[in-house]
Amino acid sequence: MVSGFQKFLLRGNLIDLAVGVLIGAAFGKVVDSFTSGLILPIIGIFGGVPDFSALAFTVNGSIFKYGAFLTSLLSFVLTAAIVYFFVIVPFNHLMDRFKRQEKEAVAEPGNEEKLLTEIRDAIKGQSAGSAPPRL
After folding, report:
1. Could you say which DSSP state residue 49 is in?
2. H helix or E strand, kind and range, residue 64
3. What is the CB neighbour count within 10 angstroms for residue 78?
4. Angle of helix 12-34 versus helix 66-83 axis, rounded to 10
5. Which one of 58, 61, 107, 131 is at 20 to 30 Å from 125 when CA atoms are compared?
6. Contact assessment for residue 71 and residue 52, using Cβ atoms and an 8 Å cutoff
7. Which of 15, 63, 71 is nearest to 43 (CA)?
8. Which of 80, 103, 102, 90 is CA-nearest to residue 28?
9. Structure pTM?
10. Residue 119 region, left (φ>0) first, then alpha (ψ -120 to 50), else beta?
């Protein structure tokens, strides 16, 4: 039972997944700091700081803080746009460049293929010059 658990933990898939989660968490912090430190202040230049956390309304004594949701939604949209334009688009261009370089040259036909092509062409030439057999 313990050896099975050990095999599960040491499988390559699990290790790759753990590394991916850690790198993703670290990258998420970088993107969050980029968004809050650079993008939101730029938006603030044109329309004020986009912090809607104070927005709320009350119904029968219950407070609905929809401003926090709007702030989180804006942060999510900005984060998604940053990841798309600064990670996904450059990565796709890089992969396209590698795909263009990997195209294999058309293989030159071997001697056997050349001889078979000559025989085929010769047979076609003979049958084209003669009349079809009559029955």
Report:
1. -
2. strand 62-64
3. 19
4. 110
5. 107
6. yes
7. 71
8. 80
9. 0.50
10. alpha
Structure tokens at 24: 């993703």
User: Distance between CA atoms of 16 and 111, rounded to whole angstroms?
Assistant: 48
Tens digit of each residue's pLDDT (9 = 90 or more) over 24-49? 888 888 877 887 788 777 777 877 76
What amino acid occupies position 23? Answer: I
Per-residue model confidence as pLDDT tens digits over 75-127: 788 878 888 888 889 989 988 888 877 666 667 878 888 888 889 988 988 87
DSSP 8-class letter at 58:
E
CA distance linking residue 25 with residue 20, whole number of Å? 9
Residue 57, classed as helix, strand or coil, is strand
